[in-house]
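seq as requested:
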Amino acid sequence: MSASTQEHRAQAPESVSCAVITVSDTRTPETDRSGALIRERLTEAGHQVVAYRIVPDEPDQVGALIDELAGTCAAIILNGGTGIARRDTTYDAVAARLEKRLDGFGELFRMLSYAEIGAAAMLSRAVAGVYRDTLLFLTPGSSNAVALAMDKLIIPEIAHMVYEIRK
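struct tokens:
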């Protein structure tokens, strides 16, 4: 790790306020394992979950919820709707809002996912970026994909990323 990365991490906030959005036509708070996993990982890492919602995979509803939450927290982590099926429209709602894309997130997610599931990793449209000074992360809805994204990418860098967008 470079000296500047170490310095930035040292200056990063210890706790980040986060909203969690599960995009699903069928999940409920009781059956939403991926949303629970995101909240659990954030809390274990010392971050705050300030909002949690489940919304159907309808671009207008997803977009309106992102608009409502952006600026009220440092990061919004969404799961679900990243595939290529007709109902998978979450990517479109998120990507349309990104003012700055973090292409490396999707690239690294698919690379790490490829090591676990093979060529099917290319079907994921995981994406991240910045919208209204808020980090947005979109992961697939499967619990395994969420765990991969949280453990390998989001938790290790979220505070550093917040530091970067605030400076």
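The helical segments are 3-11, 33-44, 59-69, 90-95, 103-117, 143-166.
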